[in-house]
Amino acid sequence: MTTTDVGAGRTGRTFTPAELVAVRADFPLLGRTVRDGKRLIYLDSAATSQKPQVVLDTEVDFYEQRNAAVHRGAHALAEEATEAFEHARQQVAALVGTDVGEIVWTPGATMGINLVATGIQNATLGRGGPAAAERFRIGPGDEILVTEAEHHSNLVPWQELAARTGATLRWIPVGDDGRLDLAGLEGADGGRGDAALINERTKVVAFAHVSNVTGAVAPVARIAAAARAVGALTVLDACQSVPHRPVDLHALGVDFAVFSAHKTLGPTGVGALYGRRELLEALPPVTTGGSMVEVVTMEATTFAPPPLKFEAGTQMVAQAVGFGAAADYLRELGMEAVAAHEAELAAELLRIAEIPGVRVIGPASVGTLGEEAAPEAGLPDRVAAVSFVVDGVHAHDVGQVLDDAGIAVRVGHHCAQPLHRRFGIAATARASASVYTTLDEVKAFREALAGVRAFFGAE
Ligand code: PMP
């Protein structure tokens, strides 16, 4: 890996200055000021991104022109609403390289992970029939593998599944550089003996594509291949990758994946769960009720095929349609150019390590993934989310001083307490970028951060 030419990306192309000006103009909120007229520098996109006008317009247009319940009703509006809703599913599927029927709408990534975990439990209870029980069964002696870097959303549901089924939770540790330590993945001898983190007892491997704290990119294809070799299911938390780089879920070879619209330039209240078609067909539903059935008698119910089987109740239609517009917006920008632009921002952000007393938690540089990382070869090996501590100053105080300068960063444990514990700290501050972030903004942030220790007399 190198730290040079990181902005070149796979296509050698980042945004031109004029393109970046045009992108920023698409995001109305970026034009506002905060704290007595200071220009807003929004460096909290990993928590939630801002939304382009086209997403806002698409949602308004839906309510003004098309609003109706979908997948029921024979009137014109119901038809148009259903068409918009299903078109959005195609737009989102196209962003992540899947078939349209493999995308399930969920209220967010968290709910998608819970859906898979609880679906596995329901299958274990026999609710999907013998074939599903055979495919998904989990119990005492089985193992669920996560990582020490997970967001609580991709940890707690697996702790719960382990507690409810008697399975054992294990985890891949994180190294000092903030990357996963994969030394124990296949066992010391390269075999799959008991000591290996992925072994014959492993039933589920759940991990983040990109850490929301360190910004490090995990070797997805390698982990997925190791899981596949023992028949374990993979569940990828793609919340922090889909908004920032090309993601082809089929090529990555994972079984399930989740991501959220609100981090992907789309509305709140909607996310997507990807599942390989045969798995979605076999997995029993979790939330039951209207809209997800075929035949209901007083005694029993047969379920609609996926994805509708997992979408009980009245759907989040306007939000899904807005998500579709966000997916198209990103695809039109070109995800390779987005990744290249954000790699430049990451390199610039990481220069905060030159400020005395500032320590970055996570990879210190941004490089390019090599051939061994196929299908991700040529993409950046970290994203532009940089967490840090400032000697002698609490993260919340860092955040407050930056806020006084109009700069929005996130402070706290970022829903990743075990990872913070791993580094012996309770909290970090995190600066994170998106398509609309500029190098000038990052430089202004660095200058403001350089003054923080002096402000608190910590020098
Ligand atoms: N995983 C990761 C890596 C995240 O960054 C987040 C959001 N902070 C989530 C899961 C949860 O996403 P949501 O709150 O949209 O369900």
TrEMBL record:
UniProt EC number: 2.8.1.7
Keyword annotations: Pyridoxal phosphate, Transferase
Cofactor(s), names only, from the UniProt record: pyridoxal 5'-phosphate
Keyword set includes Transferase: yes
UniProt keyword Iron, yes or no: no
Family under the similarity heading: Belongs to the class-V pyridoxal-phosphate-dependent aminotransferase family. Csd subfamily.
Biological role stated in the UniProt entry: Catalyzes the removal of elemental sulfur and selenium atoms from L-cysteine, L-cystine, L-selenocysteine, and L-selenocystine to produce L-alanine.
Reactions accelerated catalytically: (sulfur carrier)-H + L-cysteine = (sulfur carrier)-SH + L-alanine
Species: Myceligenerans pegani
Descriptive protein name: Cysteine desulfurase
